[in-house]
Amino acid sequence: MSISVVPVTPEQTEPLVELLEEMDRFYGATETDPIEVRRQEIQQALFTDPPAGYALLAWEGERAVGMASYSFLWPAEGLTRSLYLKELYVAEAAQHRGVGTALMNALFELAAKHGCSRVEWTTDTGNSGAQRFYEKLGQTVLPTKLFYRADDQAIQLWRGRQAT
Predict the structure, then answer these.
(1) Left, alpha or beta for 89 (phi > 0: left; psi -120 to 50: alpha)?
(2) Can you give the pTM of this predicted structure?
(3) Domain range holding 56?
């Protein structure tokens, strides 16, 4: 069966919720927000003006089997923009069937369509499966960059320091 990749529509929130819950479990979550909260978060992130990000769904027939969420960043090289892949997830039951490759192909097509000079992403250092997948696509680690993250607690501490 062939894989089709399309932008997520508001009517496709449910399959996206299911894939994101499976992804959270893959990363070790034991609890997730109630489904209604997750639906609302997706609606607010993807279908407001301006959207916080965008998402693609990979379909195999009538079943959603993968997703990719992304945003555009500016500036990249010169004054161009880049496409930043935030999450790529393929349902466990659909892995090794071309779903991830189809999603990456769609992302690269979007990047070209929008004049992006780069597509960028990260993966966890312990996610050897993802690393092997990206290597098979001919992509290599960029050793000149480090990834930093301030979590909610760090943001609140920062705000507290700025207020004093």
Answers:
(1) beta
(2) 0.91
(3) 3-163
